[in-house]
Design goal:
The protein is an alpha+beta fold. It has a single domain, classed as protein bp1543 (Ribbon-helix-helix fold, Orthogonal Bundle), CATH 1.10.3990. The chain has 5 helices and 2 strands. A two-stranded antiparallel ribbon has the order 1-2. The two termini are 27 Å apart. The relative contact order is 0.10. One of its GO terms (molecular function) is DNA binding. It comes from Martelella radicis. This is Putative DNA-binding ribbon-helix-helix protein.
Length: 117
């Protein structure tokens, strides 16, 4: 089993720093290439460049009252949740994310957590 992970392309865990402009301010975000790839996939589903997706996630996180102090961790969790929700079938391939029923997806996710607890 470990071989599946050990022999993965080493470039996936190499970090890359990108400068992103949010609300007129430039900030740097450092993530592993794996996460940059997932963010590009998520944004691409809705016709957004990766930087546009990150700015959108930043604003939505602030509106939801999240602390932006560890934004890169938030982005990693977004990527992980996206992949997990794809595996569970809650995010079908091919559809734009914006067209999905987020409340229903969150409710099903909550039900699964309760069933495990």
């Amino acid at each position: 089993m470990c071989r599946l992970f050990i022999e993965a392309d080493p470039s996936l865990w190499e970090s890359a720093t990108r400068s992103i402009r949010i609300d007129g301010m430039v900030t740097s975000v450092r993530l592993e290439n794996f996460f940059w790839n997932v963010l590009a996939e998520i944004g691409g589903r809705d016709g957004l460049a990766t930087t546009q997706l990150i700015a959108k996630l930043y604003h939505e996180a602030l509106e939801a009252g999240h602390d932006s102090g560890n934004f890169t961790s938030f982005l990693r969790v977004c990527c992980g949740r996206y992949l997990a929700l794809q595996l569970s079938g809650d995010i079908p391939s091919g559809l734009p994310i914006a067209r999905l029923d987020a409340l229903s997806i969150l409710e099903r996710e909550k039900d699964r957590r309760r069933a495990v607890a």
